[in-house]
Known about the structure:
InterPro entries: Aminotrans_3, Aminotrans_3_PPA_site, Class-III_PLP-dep_AT, PyrdxlP-dep_Trfase, PyrdxlP-dep_Trfase_major, PyrdxlP-dep_Trfase_small
Structural class: alpha/beta
Number of strands: 16
Protein name: Aspartate aminotransferase family protein
Mean pLDDT: 95
Organism: Salinigranum rubrum
CATH superfamily of the largest domain: Type I PLP-dependent aspartate aminotransferase-like (Major domain)
Helix content: 25-40%
Cofactor: pyridoxal 5'-phosphate
Keywords: Aminotransferase, Pyridoxal phosphate, Transferase
Number of domains: 2
CATH class of the largest domain: Alpha Beta
Largest sheet: 7 strands, mixed
Distance between the termini: 57 Å
Strand order of the largest sheet: 4-10-9-8-7-5-6
Strand content: 5-15%
CATH architecture of the largest domain: 3-Layer(aba) Sandwich
Amino acid sequence: MVANPPIDEIHFSMEPDVENVPGPRTEQLLERQQEIDSNAVAYPRRIPVALKDAKGATIRDVDGNTFLDFFAGIGVLNVGHSNPYVLDGVHEQLDEITHTVDFPTEARIEFIERLNDIAPDGLAGKSKVVFGGPSGSDAIEGSIKLAKHNTGRHGLLAFEGSYHGTTAGALSLTAGKAYKEGYGPLLADAVHVPFPYSSEPGPSGDVETFCPSENCCQDGTCARALDAVQRKFEGSYGGHESPAGIWVEPIQGEGGVVVPPAGFLEGLRDIADDNDALLIFDEIQTGFGRTGEWFAAEHWDVTPDAMTMAKGIGGSGLPIGAMMYHERYDTWGPGGHVGTFRGNAPAFVGGIRAIEYIESHDLLAHAREVGSYIRSRFRELAEEAPEITDVRGKGQFTGVEFEVDGEPSKSLVEAIQRECYHRGVLVWYAGRHKSVLRLLPPLVLTQQQAEVGMDIITDSIRGVLADHDR
Length: 470
């Protein structure tokens, strides 16, 4: 069965149409929001848009301006805004039942079965799925409990540059100090070691000692990271007991779309196995097709013991958090992990329909092709713009790093983001210094939209750099 309509029919248009943004109605709503909403509201401070409706990879504001969306709700809307095939199923489910806790429903069972169908090798056919709260942070909390319960240890190991959420346990794993300020103490014995990052210097010399691959890439930052992980487990002066698990994003998102070297995840797999620890992949941002594979783990053929999921798995932006883990770790008794909203039946259907839509339109291959095109445009621009120091990513997950006079430039990325907004393309940022332009378009972004969007983004970068040089 073909999941209609095709991707070129689900958008408002193939190009943006904006003038005088923000418009008067948008400004009114932004002012009203500021008066009554929490001071924690963040996104409108960077992109002053008041939303009305959205389709595919396009958004309209309340003043009638149409934008191309290159961040998709921060990686949530993988099959696009208001995808008709997904919403038809969701609407049908809404008329039947919505909240089911963990009682069996056709939607729940089928969704778990479909997740199993697309699981990485090593988990497919050998896994269990647990739903808890509706967010990625909730899924991370469940993974912490799983690791502690199965190892009897309480230490946690994560990486510099990581982002895993902002509830207490997830925040303990998150590396950014700004997220934690004023909220300590958090979980004890949560440690962070370096993540391989080409923009930072690594050790020289014999790095092959730390590499599990036959063909070592000679990346010193990878050697440094694996050595640090191993010492936390096996060093007699590591400072605490061996961790219960290793938590890692296969590609760091908030950290700047940082893609690790080939042997890194394999090395973590070996260390976890040698020390009876769980290897847990945070696939909340990288999963569900974002990187051109169902899960980013597949790029390196490394199977985690557990992986956390959220964001795109609800299909249409409906909130659902989940964790898939190997069946040997299914040691919980009834009620071992719970959450009131672990039975969001419309989200289950949304996820099922999203899988069907991705399969029907071969969106994994499409994401790889269009994402490669986007990165090629940035690399072409880098030949004339030395401020672009790195272009990286996989699938529809791209990061572009900027420096000025040898230093990461947050202000430059902010100016580029503003200029793109005024020209009708919505982009976001990331990175340890907020100096990385981060693109997460829906997988349904067409080649034509990618070309139009990249014309605008690259022209915006040229304009901002020209102003900066004056």
